Amino acid sequence: MGSNAFNINALSPHLFWDVDIKGLSLKVNKEFIVKRILEYGLLSDWLQLRKSLDIEEIADAVSNIRDLDYKSLSFIAAISKRPKEKFLCYTIQQSNPVHWNF
pTM of this prediction? Predict the structure, then answer.
């Protein structure tokens, strides 16, 4: 799938409330965009991302993210059929436990 079908303006406005979306591109800011969609996106945002990237490309982008919530990690690990240990956020999370994990 090609990234030319990606339209950042079609995503929910709450995803990028703190940045200027005119400066974002899927090619340059792939990890940032994928992380926001996984953690805070709606189903329509996920479907828009899937039009542009396949599951392997999304999993590759997530594998380099240092901090991702546990539900998003579990979701991407399940649909990509990759063990959680292959994701950087899982190894960082295990070596840095928090006191209260809600």
Answer: 0.79
